[in-house]
Amino acid sequence: MSQNEIKRDTTTSDLSKHAQELNHALSEIEKLRQEVSLHMQERRSAEERVTKLQNLLDLMTHNFPGGRICVFTRETKNDIADPSSQIGLTLLSTEEHGMLRFDKETAAKVGRAFDGERVFCEMNFGGKFYHVTAVPLSDSVHDVSHNVNEVLCVVQDLTERKTLEEGLVKALKKEKELGELKSRFVTMASHEFRTPLTMILSSIFLIENASGENYETEKMVHTSRIKRAVNNLTLILNEFLSLEKLEQNKVEVVCSDVNVPEFIQDTLSEMEIIKREKQIIDYHHSGEQWIARIDHHLLWSIVTNLVSNAIKYSKTGDTIKITSEIGQRSIVLMVTDTGIGIPDDEQQFIFGRFFRARNATNIEGTGLGLHIIQKYIHLLKGTVTFESQLDVGTTFTVVLPDAGVQTTTMIESDKISDTKSPIKL
């Protein structure tokens, strides 16, 4: 073989080898291109999923402000209520961070979402109220009863709303109570005002038509009836005005130095006109201390209500006993009557608003007096107790703190005489 032929064969062999290498390189390039194309498709798909998830997250964050959002998988289903598990709901808000744990009951409800159920419930965690929504994320759009591998859970903080709701409920309850109060006031006023007004009109008519030798006597009798009726009307109006002030928290305690026995004696003198025939008010003050620091307006209301009740619920000729005493730190007032008493099964309700015992329904009264004085006594940081027996009588005991303990005693001889002897009106 000639030299030229050998060179030609060698060149052909080299070209064939280079061609094979080139084809191999092209094949590798094509594979690489396909891989790059596949990676780009996967990246685009991933970007699309991220975009969708971000849009979903933005939508949920907008519609569930301050909420906690999490996706539970079937693998973590059993760990939702496990206290030692790290499963929890991370707050997707920049304002608050932390983990929210489900109690067993709530976790069981959330777990039902893996069976295709939409779950809506409430829970309490860390002293706050939350609304929980669990929605199954199914592989099938039309069928969520199968292939539920993930559950979307959204938890909203309802504490502020709950507080507002409770405030509205209280306001509505208060408004309802005020409405009932107004209704009962109209009913009570129309009933209680009718009797004294009728008494006043009839007494005036009888006075106008009275004549003869008994004119002066009849005038005194009917004038006393008019005074008693007017006083009853005044007491009723005072009770309703006092109740209104108490309901609106407008009652202020203003203490001053009060000569207690003298003050009570003056108050009892004002009540002379409402006594029944031959009734006696027997008042004693014990001890040598007479001055106490107390709100005299509230003390007047307490004494007036207790004594007027004793008069109303006692019989003609009965004696109402009243005692007062000023100790080192308190004032003790007791009012005892021998009247109709309070039934045992109704004694627990005696301080209720508008409450009237069944044996007192035919006796004039609003059912507000004891309710009001109990409120006043509480304002004065005192206590009121009672003992009662049906058809035997009732004793009320009021203990009021002395706002400024006084040890000074009165030395005027006339006042010493008045307080150490019974005062009978």
Describe the structure.
The protein is rod-shaped. It has eight helices and 14 strands. It is of the alpha+beta class and 425 residues long. The protein has four domains: 1-63; 64-157, 2-Layer Sandwich (Beta-Lactamase), CATH 3.30.450; 167-250, Orthogonal Bundle (Helix Hairpins), CATH 1.10.287.130; 251-425, Histidine kinase-like ATPase, C-terminal domain (Heat Shock Protein 90), CATH 3.30.565.10. 47% of the residues lie in helices and 20% in strands. Helix 3 (159-209) packs antiparallel against helix 4 and helix 5 crosses helix 6 (296-312). The chain has helices spanning 3-63, 104-111, 159-209, 215-247, 260-270, 296-312, 369-379, 413-420; strands at residues 68-73, 89-90, 99-100, 119-125, 128-138, 148-157, 256-259, 280-286, 291-294, 319-326, 330-337, 383-389, 393-401, 423-424.
